[in-house]
């Protein structure tokens, strides 16, 4: 019988949480508004493939090669170009904040034609543009794939996805993206997970160190007025601000993963007194093939005869009472005592939620 692993995220108990062990840094749950990543995209061509590139039906690939050759002084018609060693791709990348020209970033290369494998391919120089249409980086280099495809016809073997690859440090930043994180001597802190309680606690923690300089303006934003001594050194103030400790508050939630048999519950999950009954009926049908052998020197023949059997097993129903508890540990012990299978655990938790005995959000993944 498969047992369910129950993880109760109480962080070594409520007493430790009250003692401040659960406090985290501001930089771990929030960010300074204005400091963010940006998406880049570009159209490129991968060459050097071993006959696994785009077919002649991919017109955009042949036209791209023709335009590239024209820039090099060679005039060719797209119809004269064989594309089996070339593939048209889309190149994407994420450019972090504060990167300067010359910094190298990773990029992702994905086929957009009917190429079957990008292994051993080389990406030609590809400009990467932002949403404003400006070029911020240029990508080029050999692809690194985590898979392969081999075989011919119906006899093929494939591992992972051979039409998507990466180029580590394959893009060079050419333009710096301006970042504005100080607004008239004010810094806005944006929470990664909006919560009114956490925003209020964060403002209180900041005010304990620098006085009345912070106040929450929404569930996800806290406005901080920079002290006078830090007006000319915003970086130093933000560095200190990131180290402020705060105890975040989260919604009570129970997460169930049916595939791995894992139940994760937060420390604020409470279960009222509830009685659980579990029983199941299983029907098993088997077919056995028996051989009928005739006596020696007789005129009979050997025959194969089927014999069917039906087995019905009904488990005895059990009733277990779970007393009110601040965690799901008692409930887990009760379910294990009942021999509940992973398939039934979801129905039981949904029934407890419908009965009003589970004071938490139930999430099934």
Describe the structure.
With 365 residues, the protein is an alpha+beta fold. It folds into three domains: 23-35 and 180-246, Gyrase A, domain 2, CATH 3.30.1360; 38-173, no CATH class; 253-364, no CATH class. 19% of the residues lie in helices and 38% in strands. The protein contains seven helices and 22 strands. It has a six-stranded antiparallel beta barrel. The chain is flat and about 115 Å long. It starts with a strand and ends with a strand. Mean pLDDT is 78; it is low at 1-21.
List keywords for this structure.
alpha+beta; four-stranded mixed sheet; about 375 residues; disordered N terminus; Gyrase A, domain 2; 3 domains; 22 strands
Give the gist of this structure.
The protein has 365 residues and is of the alpha+beta class. The protein contains seven helices and 22 strands. Helices cover 19% and strands 38% of the residues.
- The average pLDDT value, as a whole number, equals 78
Distance between the termini: 22 Å
How many helices in DSSP terms? Answer: 7
Q: Report the structural category.
A: alpha+beta
Radius of gyration (Å)? 32 Å
In the predicted model, the low-confidence regions spanning at least 5 consecutive residues are 1-21
Q: Give the % helix.
A: 10-25%
Could you give the order of strands across the largest sheet?
Answer: 4-5-6-11-8-7
- Total strand segments: 22
């Amino acid at each position: 019988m498969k047992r369910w692993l129950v993880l109760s995220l109480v962080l070594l108990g409520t007493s430790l949480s009250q003692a401040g062990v659960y406090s985290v840094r501001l930089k771990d749950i929030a960010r300074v508004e204005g400091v963010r990543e940006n998406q880049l995209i570009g159209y490129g061509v991968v060459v050097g493939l071993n006959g696994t590139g785009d077919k002649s039906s991919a017109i955009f690939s042949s036209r791209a090669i023709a335009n590239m050759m024209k820039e090099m002084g060679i005039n060719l018609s797209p119809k004269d170009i064989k594309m089996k060693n070339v593939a048209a791709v889309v190149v994407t990348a994420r450019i972090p904040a504060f990167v300067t020209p010359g910094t190298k970033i990773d990029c992702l290369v994905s086929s957009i034609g009917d190429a079957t494998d990008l292994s051993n391919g080389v990406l030609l120089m590809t400009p990467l543009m932002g949403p404003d249409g400006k070029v911020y980086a240029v990508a080029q280099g050999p692809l690194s794939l985590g898979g392969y495809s081999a075989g011919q016809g119906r006899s093929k073997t494939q591992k992972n996805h051979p039409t998507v690859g990466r180029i580590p440090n394959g893009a060079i930043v050419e333009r710096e993206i301006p970042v504005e994180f100080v607004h008239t001597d004010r810094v806005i802190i944006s929470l990664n997970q909006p919560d009114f309680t956490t925003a209020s606690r964060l403002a209180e923690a900041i005010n304990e160190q620098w006085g009345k300089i912070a106040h929450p303006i929404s569930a996800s934003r806290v406005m901080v007025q920079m002290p006078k001594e830090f007006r000319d050194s915003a970086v130093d103030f933000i560095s200190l601000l990131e180290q402020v400790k705060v105890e975040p508050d989260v919604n009570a939630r129970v997460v169930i993963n049916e595939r791995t048999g894992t139940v994760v519950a937060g420390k604020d999950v409470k279960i009222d007194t509830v009685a659980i009954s579990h029983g199941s009926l299983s029907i098993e049908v088997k077919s056995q093939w028996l051989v009928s052998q005739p006596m020696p020197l007789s005129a009979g023949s050997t025959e194969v005869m089927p014999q069917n059997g039906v087995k019905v097993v009904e488990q005895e129903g059990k009733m277990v009472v779970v007393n009110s508890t601040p965690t799901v540990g008692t409930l887990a012990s009760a379910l294990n005592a009942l021999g509940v299978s992973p398939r039934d655990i979801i129905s039981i938790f949904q029934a407890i939620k419908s009965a009003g005995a589970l004071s938490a959000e139930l999430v099934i993944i």
